[in-house]
Amino acid sequence: MTARQELLRLTQRLDSAFGRAGKLGDDLELRADFARYLCVLVSGYLETAVVECAGSYVARKSAPPVAAYASRALDRFANPNAERLLQLIGSFSADWRVSVEEFLVDERKEAVDSVVALRNQIAHGESVGVTYVRIKAYYDAVREVVSFIAKVFEQ
Question: If we measure between CA atoms, which residue out of 147, 3, 148, 145 comes closest to residue 61?
Fold first, then answer.
């Protein structure tokens, strides 16, 4: 499966989950619970998408032993806040880092950083006040970031 196909599969899975959450009705507590679940999924989507794009790039451009090494290194990539994304992309190309850094501003940067921070709080049992509307906005921004990063790695 190509990186593009994997990203499409991941996006469709999340779109379906958001569609189901949108049909929950007026039970605010249930919607808040689902919003936390969606936050974890969005953070995982970002992490998986970046690793998939980078791994696909390395597999296309490198000899098999180098690709195997890079794949193992990418497996350790986690908690992809904006700075960690820039570090990873910058390890491939300083120009790519600048390009992503220029794109990753305002609501996109806030979405990436917030989704990862909220996911960590949720995973550690902390109380978070994320709503369906907020996580949907974050998801839309994260999708833009993933799409941009995918284009960077398609070079």
Answer: 3
